[in-house]
Write a structure and sequence with these properties.
Shape: globular
Number of domains: 3
Structural class: alpha+beta
CATH class of the largest domain: Alpha Beta
CATH superfamily of the largest domain: FAD/NAD(P)-binding domain
Length: about 525
């Protein structure tokens, strides 16, 4: 993917079948869905792909044990099916992960054991492994650092884990390979109408400040927590349909949870599920559910959320984490569709909502990462009818995601790139300096910066350290130490000057400081 090539395609196309606003999981999923059926597809993202919610998840591809508790069987069934599709189509980024539910009361073993057997049954042939009851000794073998006082045993079950932002980037590449045009840092500023029907968008290239008027048969709003701002461009009197709960995660050293198993606590004080998960040789703990009124691209963790996670983690681990142990803290906003007068966002369903306005704006919102493909399929089905195009069937259930490789672990430190690892290794062989480590704590090398700029549309230091790699999320201080070197190399690739380098370092440091506890 190359941004300049994308801009050239933009100039050449006079009428798009679909313009999709939003470059998160849902928007990119819609781009894949539309382009793979042969429709002229343009996606516009105001910042970077997966900058918002889609890069800030708990990194799980799962059916949702919590939704099973709520009795939402249909959502769990759909998510379990899509979990299986994702593992088949992106095995380089999606893999099985064993979860342990520790039991401290006599009733917990049989109660959760039965519930997780139902989870297995719903998954059917798409199952990742059979759940079973564990003795205290077996539980400790899986989680040697689990709190032993009062421990009776546990239940093991299997779900999926992934790297969310990396998958989003590979999905964007998939959409591009199917014929879609995708442009980051391109902000939609208005909706264009003809005879009260939407026929395109007004947009501005954030990098050049050039304004565009772009025509489309249908415009799709896939902007997550920013859904209502686009709906109000269509109708200034439109009621808000989105509420948001903020989910915060803390990242700890691997010593807190050695081994390859995760911990799942079915219910915390605020009614959410708590996870402690091994991820990229670190430990990810989350999440909270705090209602918020302001929707930001860079949400900030609140003190009470951090304390909540530390307190709950300490209940289940022998080594109690402190503020000093937190290497990074990040927050994400869930786009939740209002359902009556529900005050607790943890109780709002994650079913997706598809809405078509009187002037033809198609809005897709709600849902969850795991079900992005089904959300996109439903959206494009409706958009085709609205555009009065010849209907083509969806092919995405069997469409491999860019980077597909069934044994990506053979690529070692380049595993997350899947089949691209071969071309990256060729790039690294061009110059010894490309193999130099970016930071002593990480295996990321200089050549990966060059690859990200040339092939993955990385435009800023934040793009590289937050989403092309995940260094900011794993160790915020290390990311700040890496920023000057990243900026200098990106500037050379992008043809930028020293002023750009200084600005990039300063802008990234402003972001990263909120990932570090004071």
């Amino acid at each position: 993917m190359n941004r300049n090539e994308m801009l050239a395609k933009l100039e050449l196309t006079k009428l798009w079948d679909f313009i999709i606003i939003g470059g998160g999981a849902t928007g990119i999923g819609c781009a894949i869905e539309a382009a793979s059926r042969g429709y002229k597809t343009l996606l516009l993202e105001q910042s970077d792909f997966a900058k918002g919610t889609s890069g800030r998840s708990t990194k799980l591809v799962h059916g949702g044990v919590r939704y099973l508790q709520q009795g939402n069987i249909s959502l769990v069934l759909e998510a379990l099916k899509e979990r299986g599709v994702l593992r088949r189509n992106a095995p380089h980024l999606v893999h099985d992960l064993p979860f342990i539910v520790p039991n401290y009361d006599w009733w917990e073993g049989p109660f959760y054991g039965i519930g997780l057997k139902l989870y297995d049954a719903l998954a059917g042939k798409e199952g990742f492994g059979a759940s079973k009851l564990l003795s205290k000794e077996e539980t400790l073998k899986h989680i040697p650092t689990i709190e032993q006082k009062g421990l009776r045993g546990g239940v093991i079950y299997y779900d999926g884990q992934f790297d969310d932002a990396r998958l989003a980037i590979n999905m964007a590449e998939t959409a591009y390979e199917q014929g879609a045009t995708l442009i980051n840092y391109f902000k939609v500023t208005s909706l264009v109408k003809d005879d009260d029907m939407i026929c395109g968008v007004g947009a501005t290239d954030v990098e050049s400040n050039k304004a565009y008027s772009l025509n489309a048969k249908v415009v799709i709003n896939a902007t997550g927590v920013f859904t209502d701002s686009i709906r109000k461009m269509d109708d200034g009197n439109a009621n808000n349909i989105i509420v948001s709960g903020q989910g915060v995660h803390i990242v700890l050293d691997k010593s807190f949870l050695p081994g390859d198993s995760a911990i799942m606590v079915p219910e915390t004080d605020d009614g959410r599920v708590l996870f402690a998960i091994p991820w990229h040789n670190y430990v990810l703990v989350g999440t909270t559910d705090t209602p918020v009124d302001e929707f930001l691209l860079e949400p900030i963790a609140m003190e009470e959320e951090i304390e909540f996670l530390l307190k709950h983690t300490a209940r289940y681990l022998t080594k109690d984490p402190t503020r000093a142990d937190i290497l990074s803290v990040f927050a994400g906003l869930r786009p939740l569709v209002k359902s009556g007068e529900v005050e607790n966002t943890a109780a709002i369903s994650r079913d997706h909502t598809l809405n078509i306005s009187r002037s033809g704006l198609v809005t897709i919102t709600g849902g969850k990462w795991t079900t992005y493909r089904k959300m996109a399929e439903d959206t494009i089905d409706q958009a085709i009818l609205l555009a009065r195009l010849d209907f083509e069937e969806s092919v995405t259930k069997e469409l491999r995601i860019h980077g597909y490789h069934s044994h990506a672990d053979e690529f070692g430190n380049l595993e997350i790139y899947g089949s691209d690892a071969i071309a990256i290794q060729e790039l690294l062989n061009e110059d010894d300096s490309y193999n130099e480590k970016l930071h002593p704590k990480f295996n990321t090398v200089i050549g990966e910066i060059i690859w990200a700029v040339r092939k993955e549309m990385a435009r800023t230091v934040d793009d590289f350290l937050s989403r092309r790699t995940r260094i900011l999320l794993m160790d915020a201080k290390a990311s700040m130490e890496s920023a000057p070197k990243v900026a200098k190399i990106m500037a050379k690739e992008l043809g930028q000057d020293n002023v750009w380098v200084e600005n990039q370092i300063n802008e990234f440091n402003e972001i990263a400081k909120n990932y570090i506890l004071k």
